[in-house]
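User: Could you check the structure of this?
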Amino acid sequence: MTESDEGKQTLGCPARQPPLRGFPAKMADYAAKRAALGRSPSPPPEIRCKVLISSEDGIVFSAGRLQELAEMPELPEVLEVPFAKHFAGSQPEGPTSKNTIRKICICDITLSEMGLVHEKAYVERYGDMECIWYQGRWLNVDVVLGLKRVLIS
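Assistant: Sure, the predicted structure tokens are below.
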């Protein structure tokens, strides 16, 4: 091979990509291991929403009522969690006794189930600067305010 032939080969070859780092590298490694075992990559977990269960605020006063609205096959579990004032960047370790307003009941449902609730009812975020402390994180809660009118002709 002459020097001119070598130059042509290097010009035509695609640029090398830098190796993946961080989360993309972990996901690529995970997918490669699953493929080597003959398995398809597992789907990511579905996003979940928290819905307020209350007889005072909103129309969802029980888990059974939420089950009807979301067309769920099983009754959702009701959890009691602290509801507290939370400002972004503060209190990463959880609520303190002085900022906890009260305990509230919530149900944890999937995003697709929440979509069914949105089709039938008006849903808004519950509280202004208040959030719940759930599974080591601060999260917002949705409240179902009322049903939408359905005109049948």
